[in-house]
Amino acid sequence: MNSQLKNGLSPAPTILSGTERMEAERSEADSSAGPEKIVPNRPPAPPRPESQVVADAKRRTFTAAYKIRILDQAEAAKASGAGVGALLRREGLYSSHLATWRRERQTAVQQALSPKTRGPKSKRNPDQEELVALRRDNLRLTEALRKAEIVIDIQKKVGTLLAWPLPTDLEAKP
Fold this sequence. Notes:
The chain is mostly helical. It has 7 helices and no strands.
């Protein structure tokens, strides 16, 4: 009791030197790592994944071989009644992945079985051809309008010279 102070508190603990502290703090497992502790048939533990959130999140990408393998496994699980849910949980996938991949596979099969056009690809652009045809029609109609206006102007002058009366609706137009 002589180490306690009057208020009931113990004095500050003594400070150990570096080597004494290291010996005292070392765990028993560290100090007794002898050859009898090693298990020869045990495989090394797989590295733990990083638990930190990545600043730049990246989408997962799946190869075509992986998609086909998972689709085949899902069909086999569905046929055997084992359940597709277990497969999805094990692989970390969603059911929407399967739906999308099935749709992609179906379109790929349809494209593969569709007849292919032979020969070189056409370099003509239908929009460009239509634009050229419309411009040609515009020029032709503009020229026809110019000629019609010349004929109308000559008719007005001949009518004025011969004192023909002009219709009232034509006089209003300049």
